[in-house]
Every structure is written in structure tokens, then in C-alpha cells.
Amino acid sequence: MHYPLNTPLGRMGVHTLEEGPDRCVASIPVGGLLNPLTRMSTIAPLAMLVDHVGGLINHLRRDEDEWTVTSELAIELAPHAIDLVTAAPKIPVVATARPFGPKGTAPLGLCELTHGDHLLGTATVRSFHIHAPGHLVAWPTDTAEGTPPATLGDRMSVEVAETGSRTAVLRQLSDPVINNSIGIVHGGVSAAALELVGSAALGDGDDKPWRTASLRVNYLRQFRAGHESRYEARTLRAGRSSGVADAQAIGDDGAVALVARLTAYR
Fold first, then answer.
1. pTM to 2 decimals?
2. Where do the structural domains in the chain lie, given as residue ranges?
3. What are residue 66's DSSP bridge partners?
4. Packing angle between helix 45-59 and helix 187-201, nearest 10 degrees?
């Protein structure tokens, strides 16, 4: 399935290849996209892919009167993941998701990430099933021709606010295209932005750049874009070979909506 460019999935270039209660498959382009804070290659779009396909497999387990919202997202990557993506930028990353365990209170979707014949990593998405909200926004159904914006910053509607020693900040601009069906910033967009600021806060790694190994995100409340909405990160540790950064998404109301921890190695 190809999505219109005026939806968050279409804007980010996500294609759903298979959709069913036992298996969902989707892809996203990653090669050639740069972190707007560092101007270096990034794996941040994988968070968008994982949120979509992992959330979808959980969504398909809902009852008729239920909806799903993501509560947790986690990605674990192979050490050479960014090298594989940048060596063959025209090949999209594919995620295959399956349900893991019973539905329960917070169902879990398990994902495998591949690039061509190579395994890039694994990921999980945990969701809450809630009563279906009465204010769902219908996504546009037109299939206008074209391609997503050239830069990752434009695709995500973010702009650089600050980058310095051990800190990084991105502004989340208000843009209905990157909102989900309940009118808030799509969880995949916000998770990807947390990876961008987290990796940027660690710095350029001198002559040996940092490589994101894991990203763990908790969704605390709805994240709405506006004049004050932003993503912030600070370094907790930057050693010889490992680094850890904490990141958060702050909504237009000033409340922390998402928190994340990023671990990187070099």
C-alpha cells in the first residue's frame, strides 16, 4: 500500500507490503537521509517504520470498539547497521512484525529489520487498547503523484534550535501532515526525532563517529505541536567506546510527552 504524501506515512515514504493479524510487512527509505543537527547519515527513520508496522500488528488484534496507542517502542541494531544502509542507499529497510504472546492489557509486537539480505536489528512495540475515540481524523485518500521532501527535516517538519556540547534541541513545527488519526504528532515521527537529538547530543565522535545501538521510547501523554513544542537531549556519558543520552519531547503545553534513552558505540 502506498500512502498519500499528505499523510505522515506518505511523507516519510512508508509502504505497507503485507497486512494481516499474524504478519505485517512494511518498508521505508533510509539511505541518503541526514540528521539535520549533525549532517551525518542516520537510522532515525527506522523508528517511524517500527512504530507503524509494530503498532499495526497490535492494532489488528483490537475488538470492534477499541483503538490502539503506542506506549513503548524499542529498537536494537547490529553494529554495522548504518554501514549497510549507506552502502546501498536505494534499498529500503523492511520490517516484518508478528504478534508476541497473548493480547492482554498491553499487547506486544515483535519486529525484524532487514536491508536486502542482511539483518539490521530487532524491535518491539507495546500498545494500549483503549475505547475508540470519537474524534478520529480521516486521512486523505487522494493518491497525488510525487515524492517525499528531499530532506529528513522537511519530511518530519522539524528545524534545528540548538546544538552544542552534550545537548541538542529540535523544534517540532505545527504541520497537520505529520499528525496521526487522533490529531497529534505521529508516534513514529516523534520517536525518530528523539533519535536525532539523542545521537546529536553525543557529538560527532571525533574521528570515529557514534553508531546508535539501541533506542527505547516511552509515550507518556499526547504530543501536540505548536510554538513551544520541541525535542531535547543531553549526554549522560560519552566514554571512549560507549555513550548514553537521554531525550524528551516537550509539547506545546510545556509538559513532557515522551522520554527516550539512546545508547551508542564507536
1. 0.94
2. 8-131+152-265
3. 131
4. 150
